[in-house]
């Protein structure tokens, strides 16, 4: 597969677009400070997870569950038994080396943040999300004035098969799309109170977290939690995608992007917690919607060794670099979405990584928060 194809794959994983049509989406960023990469010593393979033995430090905050923390092997190996030409293989390339990481215990939302929760935040604060704000010429110098209209990116599949060489074939910038109108101005949240909130940019996620007295997880915390105590499993529940023929996550079946057969019982986004929880009690850590983490994205972040061979509560690199879009600062996304499919994006695999430009929300990207013990 060509490098350009790989870059295209990376872009769809990010749910982000570059170029004229989506020029609005790439806002100017302050240059982050110089990189000091906290380090980790590569290991050849997964080693057992050693979770902390201490019990939860108190009663769980509403809707949250205790993640004990401990030491684990972070990253993703080539999935055994998969053809080297399928997407599943390329999906692991920036998730190596597999390395040892230690995280402290924390509380984590059992589910993705819902429209009901986000609505309470907006009602209490009057917060206006990035997708609702009219972009300015200062933010996007050179953009045609008629393009400076508030909106967000919506999955808009064609009704026929298309080459998978450009995500523009199935993503559209829709004026008037934001969390309350996820498919555009004519759509609404009727009956969707307990669906994941979407179209949240990174700063929206941070604002919600601050209001809720929580924070976004680091990438390492997210992966420790999603693995649920298992070591090296392809998925949060084990190594087989189906268990006794049953789907374990909301992903995409059929032919991408034009046909979703909904074999997993959900076409598009689903109510939270419709599939079994992982062993820590977390729902939808694979599929449904992507989730922001607080780490900047760099493909080389897992490489630098530390003194004792274990990365201690790593918080991500100090800056962002994505070879497929140099100059666009991105944060790590985790978990995959209802659009993930082996044909294009198999990053529902638990050790794999997504990424997205910080001001870009889409209708398959949401939030899950954590809280430190008091
Ligand atoms: Ca589905």
Supply the number of structural domains.
1
Question: Strand percentage, roughly?
Answer: 15-25%
CATH fold category name: paralog of FGE (formylglycine-generating enzyme)
**How far do the termini sit from each other?**
49 Å
Question: How are the strands of the largest sheet arranged?
Answer: 1-3-4-11
**Overall pLDDT confidence:** 87
**Uncertain regions spanning at least 5 consecutive residues:** 1-41
- Which second-level CATH architecture applies? Alpha-Beta Complex
Q: Which CATH class?
A: Alpha Beta
Order of helices and strands: HEEEHEEHEEHHEEEEEEEE
Largest beta-sheet characterization: 4 strands, mixed
Overall body shape: globular
Identify the bound ligands: calcium ion
The CATH superfamily appears as paralog of FGE (formylglycine-generating enzyme)
Helix content: 10-25%
Number of helices: 5
Strand elements, count? 15
Architecture overview:
The chain has helices at residues 3-14, 87-90, 115-125, 202-212, 219-227, and strands spanning 50-51, 64-67, 70-74, 99-103, 106-109, 151-155, 171-175, 242-243, 246-247, 290-296, 310-312, 330-334, 354-357, 365-366, 370-371. With 374 residues, the chain is of the alpha+beta class. It has one domain: paralog of FGE (formylglycine-generating enzyme) (Alpha-Beta Complex). The chain has a 4-stranded mixed β-sheet with strand order 1-3-4-11, covered by helices on one side. The longest helix is centred in the N-terminal third of the chain and has 12 residues, at 3-14. Calcium ion binds next to loops. Calcium ion binds at residues 250-252, 262, 264, 266-267, 338.
């Amino acid at each position: 597969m060509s490098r350009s194809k790989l870059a295209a794959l990376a872009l769809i994983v990010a749910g982000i677009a570059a170029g004229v049509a989506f020029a609005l989406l790439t806002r100017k960023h302050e240059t982050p400070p110089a990189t000091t990469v906290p380090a980790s010593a590569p290991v050849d393979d997964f080693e057992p997870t050693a979770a902390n033995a201490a019990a939860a430090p108190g009663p769980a905050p509403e809707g949250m569950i205790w993640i004990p923390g401990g030491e684990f092997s972070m990253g993703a190996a080539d999935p055994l038994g998969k053809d080297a030409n399928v997407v599943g293989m390329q999906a692991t390339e920036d998730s190596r080396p597999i390395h040892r990481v230690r995280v402290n215990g924390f509380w984590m939302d059992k589910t993705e943040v819902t429209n009901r929760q986000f609505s309470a935040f907006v009602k209490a604060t009057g917060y206006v999300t990035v997708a609702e704000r009219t972009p300015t010429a200062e933010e996007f110098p050179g953009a045609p004035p008629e393009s400076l209209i508030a909106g967000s990116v919506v999955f808009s599949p064609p009704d026929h098969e298309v080459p998978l060489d450009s995500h523009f074939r199935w993503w559209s910038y829709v004026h008037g799309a934001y969390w309350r109108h996820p498919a555009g101005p004519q759509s609404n949240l009727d009956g969707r109170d307990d669906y994941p909130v979407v179209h949240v940019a990174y700063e929206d996620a941070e604002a919600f977290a601050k209001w809720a007295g929580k924070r976004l997880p680091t990438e390492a915390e997210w992966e420790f939690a999603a693995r649920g105590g298992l070591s090296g499993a392809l998925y949060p529940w084990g190594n087989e995608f189906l268990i006794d023929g049953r789907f374990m996550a909301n992903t995409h079946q059929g032919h991408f992007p034009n046909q979703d057969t909904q074999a997993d019982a959900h076409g598009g986004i689903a109510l939270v917690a419709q599939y079994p929880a992982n062993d820590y009690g977390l729902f939808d850590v694979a599929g449904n919607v992507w989730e922001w983490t607080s780490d900047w994205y760099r493909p080389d972040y897992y490489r630098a060794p530390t003194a004792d061979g274990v990365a201690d509560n790593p918080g991500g690199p100090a800056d962002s670099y994505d070879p497929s879009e140099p100059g666009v600062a991105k944060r790590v996304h985790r978990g995959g979405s209802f659009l993930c499919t082996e044909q294009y994006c198999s990053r529902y695999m638990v050790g794999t990584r997504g990424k997205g430009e910080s001001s870009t929300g889409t209708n398959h990207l949401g939030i899950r928060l954590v809280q430190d013990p008091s």
